[in-house]
Specification:
The longest helix is centred in the middle third of the chain and has 22 residues, at 113-134. This protein has an eight-stranded parallel beta barrel, surrounded by five helices. The chain is 43% helix and 14% strand. The chain is globular. α1 (14-23) packs parallel to α2 and α7 (184-191) packs parallel to α8. It has ten helices and eight strands. This is Sugar phosphate isomerase/epimerase.
């Protein structure tokens, strides 16, 4: 196992992110799934400069991106988007694309269970075929019920992976597992060798170590199943807008150059634009919590 991180949680130059995570012992990055934001040649040069490798990317399934959409054209455009993320990861010599099939924040279905399952399986198969050509593995990720109606538990994600290919895997996230699973450790064991990626944030979605999750037991269970991939930091710090705020200086008040879709995605997760100091602290705390356990 090694420590990795997402970078979609704060809009900042990639070089700044890479320098930050390098000093705290991260080995790789799961880059934001927005290929238009990254020039592959420049990104590869930065990764080499900082000695950080690309582990993969997560699809930012926002706006009209939805493999479960009733509209065939919308599904086709969503597949094209996922393919573009896969292509980017392949060009960056990454290994994984974490695929969230349905629009994050959408809680009303477009069709019956049978219709949507057929649409998603067909779309994911097309994405999987493209990934095989690019030498990239697909890991489908279940989210909690407040972020998606489509699927929320490890068993459901495995059902989709099984419907696609024996070589399709799953990604699990400790934050979502804590909400949805009867036993999060059994969910990890159920995934077993099909677990291709593992995301971490505490039960309050702050950095690992700032909540109630049992990180020694979680990492111990990953070791038990022989997991040797990334443990990927994905805190999405909730903003407290009351006088009781524990971190009153966490929100960036200065103008930030960020695409409106990305800002909405962050805000829809209950977070906001974060100050560099707060963000840096969260990165450090995650590393201090996880690294001693995986080494």
């Amino acid at each position: 196992m090694h420590l990795s991180t997402h970078n979609w949680m704060r809009a900042e130059p990639l070089a700044l992110t890479l320098g930050r995570i390098k000093k705290y012992g991260y080995e790789s990055i799961e880059i934001s799934g927005e290929p238009a934001q990254y020039d592959v040649k420049e990104t590869r040069a930065l990764l080499k400069e900082y000695g950080i490798r690309c582990w993969g990317a997560v699809t930012l399934t926002l706006g009209e991106r939805n493999l479960a959409a009733r509209d065939e054209g919308q599904r086709a455009r969503s597949v094209d988007y996922v393919k573009s993320v896969i292509t980017m990861v392949g060009e960056l010599e990454g290994e994984i694309v974490t695929l969230v099939p349905a629009t994050v924040g959408k809680v009303v279905p477009d069709g019956t269970e049978e219709e949507e399952w057929t649409w998603v399986v067909e779309a994911t198969k097309e994405c999987f075929a493209h990934a095989r050509k690019k030498g990239v593995r697909i890991a489908v990720e279940p989210l909690n019920r407040f972020e998606t109606y489509f699927f929320n538990r490890a068993a459901q994600a495995l059902a989709l992976a099984d419907a696609v290919s024996p070589e399709c895997g799953v990604c699990l996230d400790a934050f979502h597992l804590n909400i949805e699973e009867e036993d999060m450790y059994e969910a990890i064991r159920l995934a077993g060798k099909r677990l291709f990626d593992f995301h971490v944030a505490d039960n309050n979605r702050f950095a690992a170590g700032l909540g109630q999750l049992d990180w020694p037991k979680i990492i111990g269970t990953l070791k038990e199943i022989g997991y040797d991939g990334a443990v990927t930091n994905e805190f999405v710090a909730p903003v407290d807008r009351t006088p009781a705020a524990k971190y009153p200086d966490m929100v960036e008040r200065n103008p930030v150059d960020i695409p409106p879709e990305q800002l909405k995605f962050i805000q829809d997760h209950g977070s906001s634009l974060l100050t560099e100091k707060f963000y840096d602290d969260q990165m450090r705390i995650t590393a201090e919590t996880i690294l001693p356990l995986i080494k």
